[in-house]
Design brief:
alpha+beta, 6-stranded mixed sheet, binds glycine, binds manganese (II) ion
Amino acid sequence: MDYAGRRDRLCRLLRRLNLQGLLVTDRLNVTYLTGFTGEDSYLLIWTEGQLLLTDARFSQQAQEECPELELVVRPVGSTMLEALGRAIRSARVGQLGIEAENVSVEFFDRLSFRLRRVELLKTTGLVEQLRQIKEPEEVQRIRQAVWQAERAFRAMWATLRWEKTELDLANELEMYLRQFGARGSSFPPIVACGERSAWPHARPMPIPITTGRLLLVDWGANEGLYQSDLTRTLIVGRISAKLGRLYQVVYQAQQRAIGAIRPGVSAQQVDAVARRVITQAGWGKRFGHSLGHGIGLAVHEGPRLGPLRRNQPEALLRPGMVVTVEPGVYLPGFGGVRIEDVVLVTRTGCELLSSLPKSLEEMILQ
Ligand code: GLY
Ligand code: MN
Ligand code: MN
């Protein structure tokens, strides 16, 4: 990965915004810009220099992971704030951007108190903006995370027995994810059967899956750095007419939305395509979340595929973005269906990175 190139792009963005520097505190932003994968370490980047501030627990790791960066190791006995104060004063900047969504009010106040001559400016989403467009190597790693998740799901699916519980399946998924090379789950798997599938983010319980006809599974792999996020809704036994219709509506909403993804189309338009299908079926109010989100170092990152929010400009899709497409309809007392896949925006349209079956017929467990 070209970390120096990413830092150059950030510097160009800072110049455009008339910012003399940025204190990068968000752990994933630090990783994105440096390759460093430890914790509690900050990147200070300004017009004339860059340094990574860490502590003795991570100094060797930092030397290995980002040998081209100047390292400042906080001495034992001094606080991060003291070390930061010194580093920022020696950078001689008059003003400095702070990642406002990442630091606490307490941290901001204390740093301002220490650096009375430096104007601290609240910024949001600067590095996150760069992270939205994935480089080929990043796409490759997301593909790997998708592959691991799919292999794990197939292994769990192949040994699925009706007497197993939601919790059994969640535990099996986590075990198989590691078996297929993942570091672990990208988030605790959601396994919800029957009426509980109407809770979009239910926690798996020791309940046998036969207690209902629907079995919603939402899981993902952390391949080491990059994440995947998929959902399949299986059907246990016989299908009723209502259930069949529910599934087909969500399936069609997803197919249409994926068909609408290409560069230049806004993320809000893609959400609207899926929402229209579900609204026309009479379930618009039961689709209570966004259609999807960007995915990469974090499970949830930009762009958001959702309805336009007040004071928010439309976000245009661009080649290199990787997003989930996950329409869902949740009927209290009955159950919910969600289908989620990972999609890469290409120069001419899009490519589905996930490939598990999802037609109604294929979802039925006999
Ligand atoms: N697993 C959370 C989501 O689908 O966004
Ligand atoms: Mn998910
Ligand atoms: Mn998702």
